[in-house]
Amino acid sequence: MRVGDMYLLDQHDRHTLRPKTKFRAICVFNPPLTGREDHDADGAYAPDQEAAK
Description:
Elements: H1 49-52
């Protein structure tokens, strides 16, 4: 990866990053996390009912 590259996940994609050089990432969740999320059996977050309104 190079400066300015975007790493975009969708559909609960499984992923592992193994940087070989200095690496900084910024994570953005949409909808935003509320702190009440629980992982389901697949390791994904179920939709928050309040955020869905």
